[in-house]
Specification:
TIM Barrel, 4-stranded parallel β-sheet, 6-stranded antiparallel β-sheet, alpha/beta, 22% helix, 2 domains
Amino acid sequence: VTPYPDFDIAALNDYAHSKGIKLMMHHETSGSIPNYERHLDKAYDLMNKYGYNSVKSGYVGNILPKGETHYSQSSVNHYLNAAKKAADKHIMVNAHEAVRPTGLARTYPNLIGNESAMGTEYRNMSPGHVTILPFTRLKGGPMDFTPGIFRMDIGSFVPGSKEHKRATVANQLALYVTMYSPLQMAADLPEHYAEKMDAFQFIKDVPVDWSESRYIDAEPGEFIIAARKDKNSGNWFVGGVTNEQSRTFDLKLDFLTPGKQYKATIYADAPDADCVTNPEAYVITSRTVTSSDILPVMMASGGGFAISIMELQTATIAIIHT
C-alpha cells in the first residue's frame, strides 16, 4: 500500500484517466503469502480509491514459510481467497506463478486470467510449446502468456545476454488468437513496436473476447490454426503457429457469413523467415474475400500467420421515381 518515493500514485492515475486509460496494479509477493494476506484488504481498498480495476499478482521464488509450495493446500486456499476478496471489491485478478486453474473462473469470472505455465519469459522454449498449451494448460481457463515479442535477439538490447527467442513476428501476432485470454498484453518494449508499427496494427485491432471460436486444424506439438469472431462485431481473426517444421496450409474461409464481403489483412512470415536465422522478416498483404475463398498461407520454422477479416459495408442505393 506504500508506493516507491518516485511513484506519485494520485498524479499518475489522474493523468491516465484523463486519457481514457485505466492502470493495472502489480502485487509481487516474492512468495511471502502470509505477508501479502495481511495487506490484502487494504491493498484492494487502495485500488478502489484510485480506480484500479485489475491486479496482476505474482509469486516469484520459494513460498514462505519454508515447507510450503506453490501447490500446497495453504497456497491453493490463498489463491481462492484472493479471488473471492477481489470479487467483493469488483477487482479482476491476473495471477502469475499461481497454481494452474481448473475451471475456477466459471465460478469467479473476475479471475480473468492466469499465467501458471511456462510463458514468454522462458525465452528459449521450443517453438512447439505454443502448439501444446491450448490442449493442456488452457483447458483450465484463460492464460496470460504475455505474447507480442517483436525483437527476438535479446542480446541486442540486454548487454551480455546471448538469449534468442525462437519465434517469428508473425508467430507472435498469431498467439493473440490461438491462446485465449480476455486480458492481453503487448509484452515487448515500446521502441521495438515503434520500429514495426505496420505489424503492431494487428495488436491494435485484435479483440480480447469472442462470440465464437473455430479450431480449423491442429496437431498437439506440431501446429494449431484457430479462427475467432469478435464479440462486438462481425469481424473475424485467424491465427496459426507451427513448431520447428515449416508448413503450408490452404485456409478455407467458409466460417464467414455467405453473401458478405470482407477485407482480409494477412500478416505472414516472409519467404526467407526463420525463427533462428531471420525471425523478424514478415510481409503484410490485403485482399477482399468471401466465404467461398481459400487463402494459401505459409508458416516458417517457428513461425505462423495472423489475419484480420473485417466486414465491408455494402452501400445501399435508393432510386426515387418522380
